[in-house]
Structures are given as C-alpha cells and as structure tokens.
Amino acid sequence: MLFQEIEIVWNQILSEAHILINKEPSLTGFYYAHILNHKSFSSALSYILSSKLGNKSISAISVRDIINTIYDCNHEIIISAIQDIREVYNRDPAIECYSTPFLYSNGFHVLQAYRISNYLWNQSKTELAIYFYNRISTIFSVDIHPAAKIGCGVIFDHAIGIVIGETSVVRNNVTIFHSVTLGSTGKHSGIRHPIVNEDTIIGAGSKVLGKIEIGSKVKIGAGSVVLVSIPPGCTAIGIPAKIVTSQNNKQI
Q1: Model's pTM, two decimal places?
Q2: Residue 73, phi then psi, degrees to nearest 5
Q3: Which end of the chain has fewer CB atoms within 10 angstroms, the N or the C?
Q4: CA distance 69 to 64
C-alpha cells in the first residue's frame, strides 16, 4: 500500500508539471529537468537534493550517486518523504499542489537531506554524515545533527533558523516553525535534548531546552522558552512557558 502511495503522489506531480508548463511555457526546461526527465519520485528527488548539496569539492553527480545508493538500500526513506509531502499538502493552507513543496520548499528539502545524513550516521559513515550535515547547514540555514531522530509527516514551516540537537526526538506529524531550537541546557553526556511527541505544533522562535518531553497534540506559542515537560493536549506560552490551556481545553 505504501508503495502505491509513492506512485499516486508521483503521478500527481507529473500531471501538475504538464499543467504548469501550459501556464508558464518559459519554465518548460525547469520542469523537465526537475520532474519530467525522471522515471520515479526518488530519481527526481535525488536530482533536486544533489543540485543543492553538491559543490566544487564533491560534485552534484557524486552527491546524487550517494543519495541514489541510499534510496536503493532503504525504501523507507522514500516512504517517509511521501508522508512528509502529503502532510505539507494537507496541513499547509498556502500549498495547493504537491509539486510546490517538491520543487521549492526549503523545509521539505532540508528534511529529506537530513534523512540522508541520518542514514549515513546510523551506518557508521560518520565523516560523510557530518559532511552532509555541514552542507545542509550552509545551504539551508538549518542545523540538524545527523544523530537526531525525526519521524515522518513532519513539517518545517519556512525552516530558516531551525536547530535540532543530537539527542532530540521528533515524532510523527509534528509542525515546527522557523527559528525553533530543540537544544540542551549544558549537560555534557547522555540524553540532553527534548522529545517532541506526535501532532505537536511549535511556534516560531520558540526554544525547547533540556531533557524534557513535550506531549502529543501540544501547542507551544511563538517565542516561548520551554524548560519543563508539557503534558499531552496542552497549550503553553511565555518565558518561561506556562500551561494556559489543559488537555480538556480548560484555561488555567
């Protein structure tokens, strides 16, 4: 079923590309290079990522070879990418078609690039993982340690300035806005970063710090500084953040 989902999304992106060419013929070459010249979702995605991550030291062709090898070894990464793009389409009111995040969204691209660095890290290819980590930070202005654990269906909205530390855990269907930090409080070893559970929304500029747990379906207001665990279903705002709405939607 999940592999059928890949084909459904890819066929939709192909269809959208033809429509977009009719709307803007001057971008015909762009749509062919990024979508229509490719036989699969993974092929097009590896082309887009490698064109961003390659440089004079390691060419885009070499980067793409690395990415394609990883995709061939681990289809779960592509399945996660499909779930990511579906959630962007379903939850972001600014997105009207799948091709928009696929082609243009820094948040979607940085998440897929992170998945490459994370795979390499877990395969003990530490130096290559750190290289990708550095390129991601340089190109996208997003700092995600390759050891961090991030689920699927995740949205990085606008993405710029997001920092996710080494022992952080971000579970499925979390939305993180720009300039959010999942950081530590100075502990030098062990788990020292937050766990963020499913369906949580972290507002722009928020800092979530230390070995704490953010429950599922939590909302953290923009600019908040969270230093303690937040129970599921609550809303927290402020510096330091305080719970203002409980799981039962009662104001505190």
Answers
A1: 0.93
A2: -85, -25
A3: N
A4: 8
